[in-house]
Design brief:
The complex is a heterotrimer of chains A (291), B (384) and C (325).
Chain A: H1 2-32, H2 39-55, H3 60-88, H4 92-113, E1 129-132, E2 135-138, H5 139-161, H6 163-173, H7 175-180, H8 185-211, H9 217-232, H10 237-257, H11 265-277
Antiparallel strand pairs in A: 1-2
Chain B: H1 2-19, E1 29-31, E2 34-36, H2 43-62, E3 70-72, E4 75-77, H3 82-93, E5 100-101, H4 106-119, E6 123-125, E7 140-142, H5 147-161, E8 166-172, H6 175-190, E9 194-201, H7 209-218, E10 222-226, H8 229-241, E11 248-251, H9 257-262, E12 271-274, H10 283-296, H11 302-321, H12 326-333, E13 337-338, E14 350-352, E15 358-360, E16 362-368, E17 371-378
Parallel strand pairs in B: 1-3, 2-4, 5-6, 6-7, 8-9, 8-10, 10-11, 11-12
Antiparallel strand pairs in B: 12-16, 13-14, 14-15, 16-17
Chain C: H1 3-18, H2 25-50, H3 58-74, H4 79-101, H5 106-126, H6 128-131, E1 137-138, E2 144-145, E3 148-149, H7 153-176, H8 178-188, H9 190-195, H10 200-226, E4 228-229, H11 236-249, H12 256-270, H13 278-292, H14 296-312
Antiparallel strand pairs in C: 1-4, 2-3
């Protein structure tokens, strides 16, 4: 029984990481029809901004701020104006291809210009272990869990209780109508990109001490983001969180109790089942088919 | 019309450049191309191997080269894919190399070997899969132990040193990990030690909680851990966290300094067999490690040592036969023993047998206080 | 196809036959690889360019075809039978996969096919008793057909080229048929096609299944070309490669796959001067291409040709039109 609890607890901790990455992915998709195949690399990159700043002499706290700022600049502003805007008028598919290419670009750039080896990354929270219900969980994992929950709540409040948030939601649901109603749609979309950039930077700072900073981190995280977003329901931020947790716990349970060689298969099977039977995800709203 | 012309011209230019304009041996240089994993999943091993070789080549060329000719070692990237490895080896064979260097990945080595054997060109490889030297290829030479040699040494330690009756094995699911696990299980069977736990993990895996739970449940006397570096570090941390007390035994990687650093204290107490390591109690190796760190700004892993000693192996055999003859090289290399007195670049005495396998002394190590300590020196197996 | 186009194709065909005699074995290997991958790209182009569905499964189909051929020929079956078996099996799997999967909207199909590819990879890797597992299958022989041994580079190239020609012709014929015209109608205006009574799903399913079988046939050629296959060659990486090939070449154009495959195979060679940074350059180039001309290289050439025609005939320049994918 103790080991079952251990698996669930560890799974939730990992799931919180997936959830953080999935939230930003979901936001981008909702507001601007951007399916960002480079989301995993977006989480990988800020850690290297921070490490580079520290190599240049900055203390950790300053490096983190620089990392977040660079993330906003590069992954938010530059991404939107240089990559997304020119592509979007050609349709969704060229943008998808571009984000695939962007993922390769970011990965190879880090590998060639920084290092191909895994780098240790300083932790925000000192690493120690707590015993919870007979299972052991690290304080770092708890920190990730806490931040993920706080982020979701904050986002939920911001989107639903503030005027800005409601304007962003309007843009997501029907941008033409929103524009007619006077919502500054282009600005709202920009804000979404900035929010995503901040989220991935935070995720990066939290994840890198555990995962170690490596150029290949984006691959697994990106895949996890897509799975979590779709399984949970990509048009609700709650969906991304739920999807992340389900993914984390499922991965652990299937690896321990069913098969470690096929551990990757179970989330994929769930994905296929969800897409075929309930494409809006577990908690998502049904989308009208746009003609 | 214009479209056709433009297009045809472009294609012709492309294919022209694909086929030609490449190095060959000249009167003052000898062409020894390196085909390595410089990108993709094998990038770390490939770049380490490359840098070890590059350092050796620079040293040798600074002293005039081999038999008066400088080494010309262009680098080609296999992108860690066997198909591309094959095509790159095909490309270099078109230009008549003296010796082909690499690849490191066993799958790529096996497919490249088909070509080099046909062309009768020696190939110096970094792969460790046992199959490589079991194909009756007189032209393949290893730079480190094949798994069929390292695993018996480890198995002996399990039987004699640990007196284990049951073991569990944790391995990474790629050809490196699976090959090691298969060899290990075979050796356990022949020593009547029961394998009670068999846990596979994925390359790049970050969460090891399920694997530690499974391994704990197996209740073995000792655990053999055979994964790549970051995964080893993450596993060790999770094992410490969940209070796994069973002895953890590894092979070179698990006791490497990189893993020790990344696992932040969780590696203490780990023991294992160490084939090639910059931490060997050997002054020549230590000096090499220093020079490498100064030249490339990082600490090399065993692939760097493989590359470095491999080049000196080629130099020594070539000087022995006195000419650049690929077939004569093969004949002379089988059965040769090179000592550091004869050739300092070889760092440790090594023998190559009739299959191209290498025999060297190796070590049993333990991680004590964040550093690798050698507790026993294991002699050469004495193969011919 | 107009006269200039026909001339271009004819010239390229002659070129393809004559060129290998001037190349070293490595060059011949490259163009053989081009021919093999073009087959898979043509298949993906049917699904993506004509039927308008994003599929990330083509890499898996190439893998299934390769393994079928490798296993059957090593078990003693003659190559032509194994070849057909590969195509038939992939057609069937494509049909079965497409039947439920094509009910969902475009971007979802990408994820279903992504999951499928990864599942196939896991199967190929884990079921060692059948597939050789992670170690792959080595020493795959090149076939001997009616006494003609394709062992040597030049012979095998002509075998690949010939097969490509036959399959391309078959696809061309299919697209000109009433079936084919329906495919094109689907992409241009799915609502109108529906209103005209076309069973869109059935046509899309056929496209997907046929495209998948072409993937399998590509794999059937791939195995004896490289003579060694392993699961990691047929995962998502391969699917993305093929997707990029079709898009970069020009999706929806018949010759798009030919151009895209050529660029993909040759680019590492062209960019050799960048010493290992070529992936960065390739990725950047793809992004730039997508920004300026999402209809790919052929689209680019077409625009250039149109611009030249307009300039020659003195007409004023057109306003740039947005090209739909």
């Amino acid at each position: 029984m103790a080991s079952f609890i251990q698996l669930v607890v560890s799974g939730l901790a990992t799931g919180a990481i997936y959830a953080l990455v999935a939230v930003g992915f979901t936001l981008l998709w909702q507001t601007s029809q951007t399916i960002n195949f480079a989301q995993g690399e977006f989480v990988m990159l800020p850690a290297f901004f921070i490490l580079a700043s520290m190599n240049a002499g900055a203390p950790f706290w300053l490096a983190c701020l620089i990392g977040v700022a660079l993330s906003i600049l590069v992954l938010g502003v530059m991404f939107k104006f240089i990559v997304v805007d020119p592509m979007l008028k050609h349709g969704v598919l060229p943008l998808v291809i571009s984000t695939i290419a962007l993922a390769i670009l970011l990965k190879e750039t880090v590998k060639d210009f920084y290092s191909s080896q895994a780098q240790p990354f300083p932790a925000l929270v000192p690493a120690s272990d707590l015993h919870v219900f007979g299972a052991v969980v690290s304080t770092q994992s708890l920190a990730v869990l806490a931040v993920a929950i706080v982020t979701v709540v904050a986002l939920h409040l911001a989107l639903n209780k503030t005027r800005l948030g409601r304007m962003m939601q309007a843009t997501a649901q029907n941008s033409t109508l929103a524009q007619i109603l006077g919502v500054p749609v282009r600005r709202m979309v920009l804000y979404t990109f900035l929010v995503n950039a901040v989220l991935v930077a935070i995720a990066s700072i939290l994840i890198s001490p555990i995962y170690l900073a490596k150029f290949t981190n984006g691959e697994t995280l990106g895949m996890a983001a897509f799975l979590a977003a779709i399984i949970g329901g990509f048009n609700q931020v709650r969906g991304a969180i739920l999807g992340g947790f389900i993914l984390g716990v499922l991965d652990n349970l299937s690896a321990a109790y069913i098969s470690s060689q096929y551990r990757g298969a179970f989330p994929l099977l769930i994905l296929i089942v969800v897409i075929l039977l309930r494409p809006q995800g577990l908690v998502g709203r049904v989308e009208e088919r746009t003609v | 019309m214009f479209r056709t012309g433009l297009f045809t011209a472009a294609v012709a230019a492309a294919l022209g450049s694909a086929g030609g304009a490449f190095a060959q041996s000249t009167a003052t240089t000898v062409y020894m191309p390196a085909v390595l994993e410089l990108s993709g999943s094998g990038a770390v091993s490939g770049t380490n191997f490359r840098d070890g070789m590059v350092m050796a080549v620079e040293e040798i060329n600074a002293k005039g080269g081999i038999l008066g000719r400088k080494i010309d070692m262009p680098l080609l990237d296999t992108q860690s894919e066997a198909g591309i490895a094959r095509s790159q080896v095909q490309k270099v064979l078109d230009n008549k190399p003296y010796v082909v260097l690499g690849p490191v990945f066993s799958g790529s080595v096996l497919t490249a070997m088909l070509l080099t054997q046909q062309a009768e060109i020696p190939e110096l490889v970094g792969g460790e899969a046992s199959a490589i030297t079991q194909k009756n290829n007189p032209y393949v030479f290893r730079t480190s132990f094949g798994q069929q040699f390292s695993m018996p040494k480890i198995a002996n330690y399990f039987r004699d040193g640990l007196k284990a009756k049951t073991v569990a094995v944790l391995w990474v699911n790629n050809d490196f990990g699976k090959g090691g696990r298969d060899n290990f299980v075979k050796e356990m069977a022949s020593r009547n030690i029961k394998v009670v736990g068999d846990v596979s993990t994925e390359a790049g895996q970050a969460d090891f909680s399920a694997d530690v739970v499974k391994i704990k449940a197996a209740n073995a006397d000792a655990i053999f851990v055979y994964t790549n570096e970051e995964e080893s570090a993450r596993f060790l941390r999770e094992a410490k966290k969940q209070g796994l007390k069973t002895p953890l035994i590894g092979e070179t990687t698990l006791l490497g300094q990189k893993v020790i650093d990344l696992s932040e204290g969780a590696a203490n107490g780990v023991k294992g067999h160490v084939g090639l390591t910059v931490d060997a109690p050997n002054q020549a190796v230590k000096d090499f490690a220093e020079r490498f760190k100064k030249r490339f700004n990082y600490v090399c892993d065993h692939n760097g040592i493989k590359g470095y000693t491999g080049i000196y192996f080629i130099k020594h055999v070539t000087e022995k036969i006195g000419k650049f003859d690929s077939k004569a090289f093969s004949e002379a290399a089988h059965g040769i023993t090179i000592t550091p007195a004869q050739e300092p670049g070889i760092l440790m005495e090594a023998t190559w047998d009739k299959n191209g396998d290498i025999d060297r002394e190796s070590f049993l190590g333990e991680v004590v206080d964040g550093k690798q300590k050698i507790i026993e020196v294991l002699p050469k197996l004495g193969i011919k | 196809m107009n006269r200039a186009g026909a001339f271009a194709v004819g010239a390229a065909a002659v070129f393809a036959v004559v060129l290998p005699f001037f190349l070293k074995p490595f060059g011949i290997y490259l163009i053989s690889l081009w021919a093999v991958l073009t087959v898979a790209a043509i298949g993906l182009n049917l699904t993506l360019g004509y039927a308008g569905q994003v599929s990330l499964a083509q890499g898996a189909f190439v893998g299934i075809g390769a393994y079928v051929v490798a296993l059957l020929t090593q078990a003693g079956l003659p190559y032509p039978l194994a070849f057909l078996a590969a195509g038939a099996l992939c057609f069937a799997i494509g049909w079965l996969l497409g039947y439920p999967a094509l009910r969902v909207q475009h971007h979802y199909l990408a994820f279903v096919t992504l999951a499928f590819t990864t599942l196939v990879f896991l199967f190929l890797r884990n079921e060692e008793w059948l597939t050789g597992g992670i170690y792959g299958i080595n020493a795959i022989a090149r076939p001997t057909l009616l006494g003609w041994s394709t062992g040597k580079a030049l012979d095998f190239y002509f075998f690949c080229l010939g097969t490509l020609g036959v399959l391309a012709l078959a696809t061309w014929w299919m697209l000109r048929s009433p079936w084919g015209r329906a495919f094109v109608a689907l992409r241009e205006n799915p609502i109108r096609a529906l209103s005209l009574g076309l069973d869109t799903r059935r046509y899309t399913l056929m496209a997907f299944a046929f495209g998948s079988s072409l993937g399998g046939l590509s794999g059937a050629l791939f195995a004896p070309l490289v003579q060694f296959i392993e699961p990691s060659s047929f995962g998502l990486g391969r699917s993305f490669d093929l997707l990029l090939m079709v898009i970069v070449g020009g999706s929806g154009y018949f010759f798009g796959p030919f151009v895209g495959a050529l660029i993909s195979v040759l680019l590492p060679e062209w960019l050799r001067v960048t010493e290992g940074y070529y992936l960065i350059v390739y990725a950047a180039m793809v992004m730039v291409l997508m920004a300026f001309c999402p209809s790919g290289v052929i689209g680019l050439v077409e625009r250039a040709a149109k611009a030249v025609t307009r300039w020659r005939s003195g007409k004023p320049a057109l306003r740039p039109e947005s090209t739909s994918p």
